[in-house]
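Continuing the batch. This is chain 6 of the set; chains 1 through 5 are on the previous pages. Same settings as before, nothing changed between runs. Recording input and output for traceability.
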Amino acid sequence: MARRKIPGTDETYAAAQRWVDAALKSDDSLFTPGSRIWSPEVIDDLWDRFVEHPDLSSDDFLTKFRRQLAGADPAGPDTIQLAGELLFIHFLIATNVGGERKQEVINCVLSWSIKPVAIPPDLAGALDMGIADGGAGIGVGRADYLRYLLEFTRTWKGIPEARRDDALRDPWTFKDLAYQIDGTRAWGQLEALLHLVFPDSFERIISQDAKKKAADRFRSQIANPDPDQDKLLLQIRRQFEQDPAWQEVEDAHILWIPVDEPRDTTQWGQFIYWAKLFYDRADFDEEERDYKLEVAESLRLTKDHLFSGDGGWPTELRKAFGPPNNLTDWRNHTPFVEWCGAQPYSAADVLKRFWSADTNVTENVDRFFSDLPEQAHRGSPLPIASLLLAAVNPTDWPVFRYEPFRIGCKLTGQVASGTDDGGTLYGAALSFWDRLIEEAAKRGLELRDRLDAQSVVWCVTKNKPKDDWTEIRKRAFLAFRKEAPPVIATDIYRFIRSRGYRFPDSLVTDYLLSLATKPLVLLCGISGTGKTKLAQLVAEFVAPQTVQSVVDTPELELGDTEFVLTLTSKALNHISFAIPARVAPLLPRPEKGTGYDIDVVLDGQTVDAHMNEMGYDAQGEAVGLNVMFREDFRRWLDDNSVQAGDLLRVAVDEGEPPSLRAELVRAARTQLKTPTAHVAFISVRPDWTDNRSLLGHLNPLTGQYSPTELLRLLLRARRHPDEPHFAILDEMNLAKVEYYFSDFLSAMESGTEMVLHDSADEVIVELDGTLVTVPRRLQIPRNVFFTGTVNVDETTYMFSPKVLDRANVVEFHDVDLRSYATGVAADEGDGDFRLPEGADLAALLKHPGGAYEWARPSDFAGLSASATDRLLEIHDLLAKHNLHFGYRVANEVARFMNLVAKHVGPGVEAEALDLQLLQKVLPKLAGNAARLEEPLRDLDAYIAQADYPAAPGAACDLPRTAAKIDRMLEALRAVGFASFVE
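Output for chain 6:
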């Protein structure tokens, strides 16, 4: 079953069925049964006011909706109630809007009636949970979503009753009716409607792109996949829902779209992704909001007692700062509460000024700081001041804690401005919370106020992963906070998307199989299409990982008397540390030129230290404190195997004399894997005229060899023959390729050696920390794969036939900005031309014999009969015009097609041939109209299986080649010359 199966959703599905009975089976009402609210005449009236008379102003939805319902002739109670019930159905599925907010919007609309009604209590509860993420359309697309629902029900009422009955019995008939209504800008509402009416037949996925991904991901595992996407998803669910992997998670929907792939990969998008997971929980208010309002109410009562002259207000204040308050540190607020009790008159004056101030809040906080005596707080008074503001308005002025604010800014890429304590810092926090509300609204998460914003910031930055989350979700959350290594993708397509890039799956497959065919691929096209990034991402994923130890220093939440000493390598050598300015006032200042000894308790062991001034300014004022440890501290470090990156959490114990208490906090050390040693990225320069920039050279004066990054890669590949290595030549045609790369082309083809030097003496270079010999001659290791990126403009050189004949030329010609705007590549998730999930790409790049080999005659002999026949026919056609290809191209085309048949499947033979004609045959065709027009026309007619020009809609199973030929023919007609490279 596709239903969501967690507590509370039964009410949601019951409410949906109640609407079906009231609105689709009759003309009844959802809120007031027995009233003809969903009748054709009431629907028509709302349609006329809402759809036929759009409000195009920039006002918010509710303002415009109210004007539309008012109109010249105000809407009657039934029409307004229909509007409220329509909103109820619109909101019902959404998990990204809280139940209270849903009710608030619906009740606001209902209140416009002269006979307002209320949402029945049982239906109000159905709004709390939700079923699926409503996406941004729930917020920014509400008018379009309501328009679709209204048009659907309006059309529904005009359908014969017998057909309506059939549609309510058969989900696929209902789907056909739903799709007859224009879903432009409201596809999410259409998909939501399908699930609400038939929750056992349609997945609770309201994104069409997500449905396509889900279907494509599992299509290959279904024996007879249904061509209808929704029916295929139902097949998939029925086949897999008994699998334990589905049962171990809260809902199987997580398997459709892995949680380590937030669709919005911006810093704000990822932050809000996690914020929403906390905010949508049924216990969010109970855990994060209700008790804060309870504390605020206690402070309001304290305020009332104070202003009424009740001398018992300090007692009320003490209660307010007690349980359930955990918003301020007891060490911070206890001195304040005790000062209020000991000096009630002075404290009353301070609080009255603070609570009755008519200045802006930041100025009020600054004045509170200046009014508060030093003995009334320990550390910053800002948490106290911000909590006291809750007595005035807890939803506008939440309590401030520095650590969540700092971490939140870091995770969202914001600058933690206003770091000076006081009103400036609190103002920065208010701005951050406001920005969070704004960014969340753009992404379909409606936070009610700053208190919600403060709460989700705390959740995302400080809370542990929830116990009921799956393990992958827990790991992804900790990786987002940099508290765990990233979740590693096991699929090249998902890996690329996880890095924020979108390439059609068919293009990624083509590139990989082209490398496996012959390790020289040219990625050719206009600038800015992602050619270089595709090569880098594939290399990063495929290349063996080099392990590096990475220190992950923990973020510590500190009390007002605590600070952190970071044990860097330098600090471990000099064992001297600066005392942070925040806590320095808690320690005595030595007189100029003097210092004093201080005891430090290290995990129960006392060591000696000396405190002195760090220095003095021009006026002779001290600029800071410094603590210097002695040898017993160094011994303690050795005994406890302390390493660079570990921390000391230090607390100041005020007394006579003061002392320090320190606790060792060890940093987490993770093994980070990087492919750097197996990838060389080379930026080609226009002045390259020989291969020295690639292979280096021997200095005849010094006898020293000047190595290059590529030479190191080649030497490294020789030492590790079973591991793939990648060389990426960026903007390869900025210089003439034949000048600096011809030795490589010959060596690749014939297996000959390239000359590095002619020295009779041994020549050595450093490689990965060791000295290795540079040979006089070097054969290109067969585990090195070359990719050249090629931009085509007036600053670059064209390739010669020698180069084109030895490479697969993959075009980056199409730019689909519409798909780019949605964040999804045009054929992303294409299940037909895609490697199996989890395919071993390193093994793919090896010849079946085990060694790295390139195309050979046996590949051509292994080609299927149908593919051989078509390749021969194309060869014969081109031979008539002396444009045919040789044995090498035939072998390489065959190897590519055999790899496709083995790793993708036999059903895509035509697509494989199409790609190879495009990448191996057409690139060599260049010339004027007299030379090219007739052969191109013949080839076009053969491909279209019709006379030239082919009739519209003529059969063609080689569409890429046909489209390229058409463009070349257009160039011939326009300028009299054409070439593959445009």
